[in-house]
């Protein structure tokens, strides 16, 4: 086995895997580990250094992400040829050197991100089988550029699912597929050029809508039931972005009465629309299901949006929106020349996944898994945090909020968790001024990791 | 075998396959063909009706596209359950009925579209093998949301290819992957908010840029060498969109002297940029290769754009752009929160396709195939059209222009071709006022079809 002999310091502030990562990176940059050298497997290196495999994995993953290592399935980890820029970044940079902006932060062992899924349950086998069926020369129609709104059969399969599971009532012809919800929202902005946009505050859309249309955005506060319709009315806005199934980030589920009020608001003014973002409606752990606003609407006032990225696979960029008649007409008359952004093979894969019942099976399976994870998270927090934590928005979705009454501010909570190798997320990013509450997503952590991570947080915060 | 007994009229203006399509559609709507009935295979129905398999295929394809039939690989063609809207469309429509806007026109046997590839040569086997390698639980990192610019390894593989084949010199860190060139151009508009845009006239970008930024667009005429720099200078624009490898649609290749003039123009003013769209640089049949403008630029003035959709697979929505330093900085500071629009599995598939040499092999193979198709097209036109056609822009790319000197206008040429079941495309759509020239793409027609189609055109036009 290749000798990897870092000096690791158990007492250091720096976690062990960051030390290991630094060491290997330096060895590569100095040319001691040269291109195409094979590194020891995680298991062997863990044994050799008396570390956990998790530690080795965290270091390797980061080196892969930064282009120092390459992981070849069933073969192992190899040192990459450095491009000049990576090599240069060790000192003698050219004037025009462009630095890679890192996307993930390597410093954490437990990341409570709200963007992620349970990787162990992903149906790789089904995906493989379906893809093998699709990638055949009989399917050469899939090579041609398809319909701008997405393939009719795929839209039809989604419409059927939405009708059965969410009470959304639509024709496939009023649906548009797109590479992610952000993409579709930007298309919506083009359809609603003269709009004044109302967003939930705090809320997810607050960031995105405000960024692009800051001069035309009204922040609308929430009460226990969601967006306050009286404040919406006063604001003068005509387009309201809402997340009624599971308000992001606060987690309340909008009751039917508030839904009817919202629809009433929309019906009372010309050019008013509601954008219903149903981003994680699939996961609901208690209470009766409430039909989507779109299904309650009889006046072509609701745009319904949903996604496969949240519940199935964040890296699969497939979302959809259902437009009411006046908006689909603007789209078809003026924006039909935009090519579809989702590959046709991906569309066909998901169509079969829906039609053959895999999606429903997968969602049922994940609901059980996530329900259990949520229970563990909530129970552990209650057990570990002495009387001083409050859990918010746990009835559905893939994250909860935790208000920690230990005198720390949001930033202190985050920093202190970081010192214990755990990443929790600020609510202020979504406009909250609460300042003692953080966001914990739990989908991508294992049950054991949730246990350990909450212990870490208890040490960090109390 | 199920009885399909249409009355077909050989003398009708309506092509046979449209008659067949109409008949089957009517049978489904009237309930004579009910859901899940299996239709005869193309071969059997062709024998039964004494028609060519092509005719059956054209009818089936259109029925599939409209949701009446479903094609199940290795099983056959089935009647779909009609959704209410399709059924309703037979008369009793509800007030809010939303009609499917058709994307492809079923009326043509030979479609000279410029968007398409040779379906028979698509490497299904390689795609299947690579996908099987990727869809394994060891690759669970691919489930996580990836880097907003696209995966580093994928960008690195593209950068290497661009350097070797096009002389483009860039770091992976200045590249952004996106779901199609239109998507990336819209992102560029956000980076260049104060820009005044110059586009080639006639040209591809004329349509798209003008649509979104009509109040800030200058049309720049072309001479034999491409965009006229003197007119660009006079226009007051600061951002020039060009297609130097193969001007779209006119087909000229910009010589090195004009490239240097363009770069000089860019260097002479602050905030000036050139957008080099190298959409089909892979196919070049004569003359020496000329390096990309990006490779000649030493002052961070060129945005380079390319795509996998054109040469490999139109329905695979993957394009990329290389930004000069000032623009990548704006992007990284202000737009980094936009999630990547291409699925990570697709990125990984294409990365392996590049790294393992399949892309180069495929391009070499396609170059021979397309070269031959172009030769057949050009030879046939010369043979069939008596002294009165001129072929323009045949040195590269996947389409040519044909100027027909028979006294017909562009619209007459198109209409007359249509009567002979052939679709040719207007140059006026790209701003040309020539009015006797049409565009013929040849990538997706077979050699035999090109033969037959040109004969049809000769009958139609002379």
UniProtKB/TrEMBL annotation, chains A, B:
One of its GO terms (molecular function) is DNA binding. InterPro entries: Aminotransferase_I/II_large, HTH_trans_reg/aminotransferase, PyrdxlP-dep_Trfase, PyrdxlP-dep_Trfase_major, Tscrpt_reg_HTH_GntR, WH-like_DNA-bd_sf, WH_DNA-bd_sf. Transmembrane segments: none annotated. PROSITE patterns: HTH_GNTR. It holds the Pfam family GntR. Keywords: Aminotransferase, DNA-binding, Pyridoxal phosphate, Transcription, Transcription regulation, Transferase. The keyword Flavoprotein does not apply. Its cofactor is pyridoxal 5'-phosphate. Residues 14-82 form the HTH gntR-type domain. In the C-terminal section; belongs to the class-I pyridoxal-phosphate-dependent aminotransferase family. This is GntR family transcriptional regulator. It comes from Cytobacillus solani. The lineage of its organism: Bacteria, Bacillati, Bacillota, Bacilli, Bacillales.
């Amino acid at each position: 086995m290749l000798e990897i002999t870092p000096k690791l310091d158990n007492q250091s502030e720096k976690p062990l895997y960051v030390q290991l990562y630094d060491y290997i990176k330096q060895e590569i940059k100095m040319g001691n580990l040269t291109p195409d050298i094979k590194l020891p497997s995680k298991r062997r290196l863990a044994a050799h250094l008396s570390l956990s495999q998790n530690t080795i994995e965290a270091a390797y993953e980061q080196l892969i992400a930064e282009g120092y290592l390459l992981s070849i399935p069933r073969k192992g980890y190899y040192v990459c040829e450095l491009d000049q820029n990576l090599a240069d970044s060790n000192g003698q940079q050219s004037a025009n050197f462009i630095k890679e902006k890192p996307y993930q932060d390597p410093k954490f062992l437990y990341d409570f991100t709200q963007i992620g899924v349970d990787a162990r349950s992903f149906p790789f086998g089904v995906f493989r089988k379906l893809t093998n069926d699709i990638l055949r020369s009989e399917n050469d129609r899939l090579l041609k550029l398809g319909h701008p709104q997405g393939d009719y059969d795929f839209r039809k399969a989604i419409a059927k699912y939405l009708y059965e599971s969410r009470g959304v009532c639509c024709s496939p012809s009023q649906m548009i597929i797109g590479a992610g919800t952000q993409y579709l929202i930007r298309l919506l902005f083009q359809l609603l050029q003269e709009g004044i946009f109302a967003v939930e505050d705090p809320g997810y859309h607050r960031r995105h809508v405000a960024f692009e249309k800051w001069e035309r955005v009204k922040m609308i506060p929430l009460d226990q039931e969601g967006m306050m319709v009286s404040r919406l009315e006063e604001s003068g806005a005509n387009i309201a972005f809402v997340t009624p199934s599971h308000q992001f980030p606060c987690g309340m589920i909008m009751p039917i009465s508030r839904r009817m009020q919202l629809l009433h608001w929309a019906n009372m003014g010309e050019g008013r629309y509601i954008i219903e973002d149903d981003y994680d409606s699939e996961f609901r752990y208690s209470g009766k299901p409430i039909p989507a606003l779109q299904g309650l609407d009889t006046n072509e006032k609701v745009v319904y949006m949903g996604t496969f990225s949240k519940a199935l696979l964040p890296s699969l960029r497939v979302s959809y929106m259902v437009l009411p008649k006046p908006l689909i007409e603007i789209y078809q008359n003026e924006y039909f020349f935009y090519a579809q952004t989702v590959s046709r093979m991906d569309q066909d894969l998901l169509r079969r996944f829906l039609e053959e019942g895999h999606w429903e099976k997968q969602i049922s399976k994940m609901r059980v898994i996530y329900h259990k994870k949520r229970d563990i998270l909530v129970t552990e927090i209650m057990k570990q945090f002495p009387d001083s934590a409050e859990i918010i928005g746990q009835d559905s979705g893939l994250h909860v909020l935790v208000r920690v009454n230990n005198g720390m501010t949001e930033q202190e909570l985050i920093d202190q968790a970081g010192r214990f190798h755990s990443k929790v997320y600020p609510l202020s990013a979504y406009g909250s001024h609460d300042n003692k509450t953080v966001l914990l997503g739990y989908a991508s952590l294992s049950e054991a990791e949730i246990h350990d991570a909450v212990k870490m947080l208890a040490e960090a915060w109390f």
